[in-house]
Amino acid sequence: MPRLADIVRRHGTSYLARFGDAVLPSHVRALRSIQLCRTPALGGHCARCTQCGQEHVLYHSCRHRACPQCGRDATERWLNRQRDLLLPVPYFHVVFTLPCELRGMARSHQRLLLAVLCRAAFESLAALCRDPKWLGGSIGALAVLHTWTRTLGWHPHVHLLVPGGALAPDGRTWLQPPAYRKQYLVPERALAERFRGRFLALARRALPKVTLPNIPWGKRWVVHSKAAMQQPERVLEYLGRYVHRTALTDKAIVACTDRDVTFAYRDSQTHQRKLMTLGAHEFLRRFLQHVPLKGLHRVRAFGLLHPSQRSTLRRLQLLLAPRQRTEQSTHRQPRTRQCPHCHGTAIVLLYRLTAEQCSNLVERGTAAEPAARGPPTMPARCT
Questions:
Q1: DSSP tally for the chain: helices H, then strands E
Q2: Are 276 and 351 in a shared domain?
Q3: Which of 366, 360, 370, 355 is nearest to 49 (CA)?
Q4: What letter would DSSP give residue 351?
C-alpha cells in the first residue's frame, strides 16, 4: 500500500514546479518534511536488539504535524495530560460550523478567522450558560479546530468538549443541568443565533477593511450539541487523532499512479466505505489546504480549563471527587520499538548517525529503512 510520503516523493516536485510562488511557505515545508521523513537525509541511530543481537539503523522522523507517520508519541502525551484534567462529571460534545458563504473568506484569512471561530464558539456557549435560566455560572471547554471533510474538502468547524456543569459566582458551588436536560447543555437554536452574532461581530473587528459576504438572514447556522454518551476519554481520543496530525492517514490511501491517487473514506450519509480518485496535484492541493499556518493553534482551552485557572480546576476535582466513577481512566504506556528481525522489544540505542553516515551505509547496502516507527527517544546526553 502506498503512503503519503510515497505520493509526495512521486508528485511533490512537479506540484511545486507547476504552482511555484502560489504555494504557501508552510505547504512547502510540509512537502519537504514528509518527503524526507524516515530517510537517510535526516540521520538516525544505530540500535541493537538484546534478544537476537541484530543491529539496525533507525532513521529519524520529520516530526512535522502534517506527517501521518509522526505524532503518535506526542498524541499519547497530550491525551495523558488531558485525562488528568477531566472532571468527574458528564461531558457534552458541541460542534460549531461556519456556513458555506464564509468558508472561502476563512481560508483566505486563516490566522484571524479561525481564531475568531474558536473564540466565538466558546463565548456564545459561555454567555448562555451564565444565564440563570440554563446554568447560571462559569464553564470551561477544550476546543479542537478541524478544517476538513472526509473527502478532504475545506470545511472549518470546531469541536468543544464541555464539562456538564458550571461554577457558581460564589466560587464554591458546582451547578449541574436539570435531569430533563441530560441530552443537551443549552438549546441548539438559541446557541446558533448567538454564535452567528458573536462570530460576525468579532470578524468585522478583526477585518475592518474587508466586506463580509452576504448571508441570508433566515439561514440557520449549524450547531450540534449532544451528551457524550461514551466516556469523555473516548471523545478525547477522537479529537486527539488530529492534534498532531492532519486529515488523512496512510491507511486510507489505496493506490497511487503517475497521474491519480485513490483513497478511501466513509460516507457521512450512508456510513459506507467508498473510494475517491483524484488527480495527483488535486490530491496534494486538498491535503495541503489543511496544513495549519505556522503558529496557528489547533487546540485551545477556555474558561475553567484554561491554564490560568488550573488551581480552580484542581479544587473542583477535589470538590467533585465523591461523585467520581469507580473505574479510573488508565494512561496508555508509551509504545516500544520493535526489532525488525525477531520482533522483540528489547532495543538498545547505541549511537547517533549523521545523514552522511546513513547515506554511506545505504550505498554499501548494509542499512535498510525499518518498519514505520516514530523517532527514537534519546537521553539528554548521548554519544
A1: 10, 13
A2: no
A3: 370
A4: E
Are 55 and 95 members of one domain? Answer: no
Distances in Å between the alpha carbon of 268 and those of 151, 265, 271, 349? 10, 9, 5, 45
- Given a contact cutoff of 8 angstroms between Cβ atoms, the answer to whether 340 and 55 are in contact is no
Question: Could you give the dihedral angle defined by the CA atoms of residues 244, 246, 252 and 254, in that order, rounded to the nearest 10 degrees?
Answer: -120
Amino acid letter at 147? T
Distances (CA, A) of 132 to 113, 176, 196, 207, 312: 31, 12, 22, 34, 21
User: 382: which 3 cell numbers?
Assistant: 548521548
**pLDDT tens digits, one per residue of 19-69:** 988 999 999 999 999 999 988 888 888 888 888 877 878 888 898 989 988
The reported pTM is 0.86
Q: Among the three residues 261, 288, 315, which one is the final residue of a domain in this structure? A: 288
pLDDT tens for each residue of 337-373: 677 777 777 777 888 888 888 888 776 766 554 444 4
| Total domains in the fold of the chain | 3
Between CA 257 and CA 352 the distance in angstroms is: 36
232 and 364 inside one domain: no
Query: Per residue in 176-214, is it b (16+ CB within 10 Å) or e — as a string?
Result: ebeeebeeebbebeebbebbbebbbebbeeebeeeeeee
Separation CA 329–CA 335 (nearest Å): 18
